[in-house]
Known about the structure:
Chain A contains seven helices and eight strands, in the order E-H-E-E-E-H-E-E-E-H-E-H-H-H-H. By secondary structure, chain A is an alpha/beta fold. Chains A and B meet through helix 4, helix 5, helix 6 and helix 7 of A and helix 4, helix 5, helix 6 and helix 7 of B.
Amino acid sequence: xxxxxxxxxxxxLSKQFxxxxxxxxxxxxxxxxxxxxxxxxxxxxxxxxxxIKIADIYVLAISDNAIKDMLxxxxxxxxxxxxxxxxxxxxxxxxxxxxxxxxxxxxxxKFNEIDFKNIPILIxxxxxxxxxxxxxxxxxxxxxxxxxxxxERKKIHLAAVFVNNFVNHLYSIGYEFLEENNINPSILIPxxxxxxxxxxxxxxxxxxxxxxxxxxxxxIASQIEMLENKENKVIYxxxxxxxxxxxx
Amino acid sequence: xxxxxxxxxxxxLSKQFxxxxxxxxxxxxxxxxxxxxxxxxxxxxxxxxxxIKIADIYVLAISDNAIKDMLxxxxxxxxxxxxxxxxxxxxxxxxxxxxxxxxxxxxxxKFNEIDFKNIPILIxxxxxxxxxxxxxxxxxxxxxxxxxxxxERKKIHLAAVFVNNFVNHLYSIGYEFLEENNINPSILIPxxxxxxxxxxxxxxxxxxxxxxxxxxxxxIASQIEMLENKENKVIYxxxxxxxxxxxx
Lengths: 248, 248
């Protein structure tokens, strides 16, 4: 196998693949060698496209808009070509016959080691045999492997934007508001962890609390007043309205 | 001590106080006896205001707008009177001399047992001696007790609305979008847990990812298109704009 890419996903997957017994991770390619330099402990690294080795499987863990152009540099036209993107259809790889997707549904940050056993790995392949290959690999990494087609994966990725990117942005707003007021934001961490942990037992709709749900317009008005940042006032209003409507 | 209230906070605090060695929990009062019936294992319960017992400490774990009226029914004018609200100033209790606040910064749901040891308990009192009493009680319940005045507490509560109420609403939107598309939303749980867990090691601003951060306007447009609910389109746009601006 050859992994292509030098970002968060390439970093984590290279480590995972290098620990799979059935995989021989030959090489990691990235146009910028510095961002993969620490991966030379798990495989040979290169930044030269014409040095990409012949392999049976290529994993393109690169940004969505770079996938298509990268295909020209894959030296084995009979190989199984995978991408790792949530939003991109498998068909972008159609220049090749043996194609598939290996998408870990998780927020991955370089150097932040994480247990992959619980991470859903969403796999898809054009050919049945290749799907079995993917399944076999994914099962060595995670206990939560699911067959998901490109349309479903796009929907899951969109939901992930809400529960990860947008949620993390609300964390930022809360943190920065407290920092501006000289309060250490780490006071919020137990609340944040429990808010997430509750989903193991409850549907989020059934555990909503707070001023918007109980239509406490006095508290809502005083909190909007307290926010100094205009954009955060708009976010506060919009999300409060949306919550209030949900519990009418 | 007498606890007044029958909601989530009253339920949890009654259980916690009943386990404190230095507290004799005499009674729990609520206007609706049914919602406290299961608490008769930890104290006497009543729904009659004129039967509220004489005690040294009264804990008003009731909704913000009910606090003022409830004060008329406290039979011991020399007692220490506490409320448990994040948004309400301590001064609302000014009809009494010995007043204070005992605010657990956590999302509490009845019957959902939770370890209080890590929950920040924010305490405030008008008199030094009473603050020591509160500190002594809070220390028996949690390892994270902090002196926070009413102004600071209001700010922390506002931040909590962002990281709890609003975050939980984004969970709801993600869940419902997948449910409408016949995908089991529990696939999101590992991502949600890790997104929260990351804050133990990182500031949220330093770990943002996704289409809005990298200004991937093609993905953003296709995701807005994919959302059917108009209001969710507006939320998606507003939060994406806000993220994009943060990383300019």
